Amino acid sequence: MGQPQVETSPKVSDEVRKTTCYMCACRCGINVHMKNGKVAYIEGNRDHPINKGVLCAKGSAGIMQHNAPSRLRAPLRRVGPRGSGEFEEISWDEALETAVSWLKPLRETAPEKLAFFTGRDQSQSFTGWWAQAYGTPNFAAHGGFCSVNMAAAGIYTMGGAFWEFGSPDWEHAKLFLLFGVAEDHDSNPIKMGLGRLKERGAKVIGVNPIRSGYNAVADDWIGITPGTDGLLIMSLIHCLLKAGRIDADYLAQFTNAPVLVNGDVSSPDFGLFLRDEDGKPQVLDRATGKLTAWDRPGVKPDLTGSIRRAGVTHASVMHKLVERYMDAQYAPEAVAERCGLTPERIRTLAAELARAAFDDPVVLDRPWTDFRGRKHDKMIGRPVAIHAMRGISAHANGFQTCRALHLLQILLGAVETPGGMRFKPPYPKPPEIHPRPHAKATPGQPLNGPHLGYPMGPEDLALDDNGQPLRIDKAFTWENPMSVHGLMHMVISNAHAGDPYKIDTLFLYMANMAWNSSMNTRSVMEMLTDTDETGDYKIPHIIYSDAYSSEMVAYADLILPDTTYLERHDCISLLDRPISEPGAAADAIRWPVVQPDRDVRGFQSVLLDLGARLGLPGMVNSDGTPTYEDYADYIINHQRKPGIGPLAGWRMSETGLTHGRGEPNAAQIDSYIAGGGFCTIHIPEQAQYFKPWNAAYQDWAVQTGLYDKSAPYLFQLYAEPLRRFQRAAEGHGDRQPPDHLRDQIREKLDPLPLWYAPDAGDPGSYPIHALTQRPMAMYHSWGTQNAWLRQLHGRNPMYLPTGLMRENGLQDGDWARITSPHGQITVPVAEMAALNPNTIWTWNAIGKRKGAWALKPDAPEATKGFLLNHLIHELLPPKGDGLRWSNSDPVTGQAAWFDLRVRIEKADPPTESQPAFDPITSPVGQGPDQLTWSSGT
Question: What is the pTM of this model?
Fold first, then answer.
């Protein structure tokens, strides 16, 4: 009997087009195989600096995202009530003129009545530029809901943070410590890095209440109690200080540990740095014993210096640091029970950190010169790499916890040294060289500066002359002074309440606020449909742009349909969130590897068209014609300042093409396409480490256009901007906080990291912590409409530890009622042994509203899937003081959704997960039973 003839090497494609993935935030390079003009297959690009050919399930499933039945097909105008999903298709001209008819009168009279907030896009430098030109102060992206604590704490402490701004030194680390890292962000680089660590025998330790993903492959797992990471970290610092296991030379040279601080409680400058006539912080020089500026060439700062001057004793930051963390309240015996650990566990971890850092340092034979002119013949590193993400960030104490983690790294000398954490260009950038926030709206004029920035004191708050918030989200106010990413999660509730003022138009992009991008989800849906006494909607106009028929679509009045990521131009810019790695500056593009088969347009091009119709500066020529034909034209020809544009590669110079600074090049995008969709500018070898202090790096950064001038700085163990806010709360200065916030500011805005317990309900009534994690196979909510990814995560149980399962008489597949101070859900449960014994958790954003995403009403995501968001409120439970306090970090305003506490009880199985909502009508209907198509002949 003959063997069947099988084609073992079928022709996959007739052309390969290289672009950038958008199935998560990694921004991996992909090869899109085309066959007969259609997408046939997606694989990793082996030449790409981020993923080097590796591609995960999400990336491969991009072909299903591109062909999803839920794709919007044309501009839409609402014809039924909000929330009904009833729309009619209209032309683009009609859609844009409708938007102009709402937005133009606002710009001419009250531009602050436009609130423009974007979700998980990667073009914030562009959308912020548009909003600034319009003149509204009300712009931000989703960071305030996601991980602003991580970003703000990193910038204020050391000029950069984890993930987007920094990365472990995978090649030299000998101990890798993760805090609160899930698997959805930066997943391919981390997986590749973990592989390299394990090849070399480096140890991996995971600190997380949940042992999944990276923690599951770690050599050791520490199942900490949620919200106590900061307490653990400070106990580790206590142990290291007590044992003398810190890098004193690193602290003296590169941090503000030797900077002198006013120690007179009766002085108006108490707690502020001693400065010279030029405003520079002072240190004592060990060689001369004299006061001097921290950056004077040749100075050797005295780490433990003190001086008495004009009757006031000034002592170094190091004195304050030792006094705080050597206190017995941070001893392992004092903190272990609250952390869910034993004292021995904490001491063992501290000893492991010390051994890795100091007993076996990494020494690279690379001479370098620091900013004071001191020559170093080698690069000496502490091979402890630490990485963290939103698990420690999304708490009411997240900012100070993140600061504490950076303090731990710095005490070990493990930031920007071989084996530790390394910054990615354009970082490091200290807060001083970032802009300050601007919020002064003037009718008919652009905003007076960038919306977002880093306040250095009360003078930078976004308040009017009467102390009232200038922004609808109340960012940069006394409630959350350092809200550097804005507060997207507060926009709808504040707009609905008309507090601090009413808005007219809410303009959202890729922000699924009517479902999984809001706390208090049911109430948000009610706010979007609520009317006033005249019957008009309290938020009069809602414009929404998305590529897909998400839950938010049904609540908009005007829909501007976006393309998929394979059908548009995108710019992953050094002005924004580039694809850089520690050894190189790098940016990338997306480009239309296929043209849309629907009447949709890339959102950035739509914004430019809308800006030209509105006559916004920078978007319209003097003769009234648009400045830019589309977003691709903008990418090529826009200059943020002379020589600096959205893309750094293949720019024009007097001698030809160059990378970095240069004039626009009409063929720039073509050059990127020919180069694989990215550009890499390598950092010279002698500039690869010690970037904030390395003269060679500073020179390279200026030459490349990352800095305007050399900007060395010190890591800020003691954050003076926080002390300035404290001083105001103590009664100093012209800008004073309201009385009910004084105690909060005095306590929580401490210039040295501290820990305080989150306040999220009575532990007696709600004894159990509840968390969400996002699966590696899904990025936010888009994955649950993807035909391939749905097979991996079509439903989500609530995972309970073994003890809670037994205590409540539960088995896998049973149902439980989960109750918080705000609400209740009834959901299926499953047992998980590798879990903090007082914590339950589920996958995030699996649950879907019936009718959304072109899913059928009986889809498992809509019947067995659920959201934890229904249990979380944007406000804390009443405290009995007549006030309602925000469920957020008091420093940055980040949503504290990981502070959730609940109780559980076994429930009779309902027909579907509760709460259940009525189906919404989707403008694209339902998808087919089988999603098939052919790219063949």
Answer: 0.97
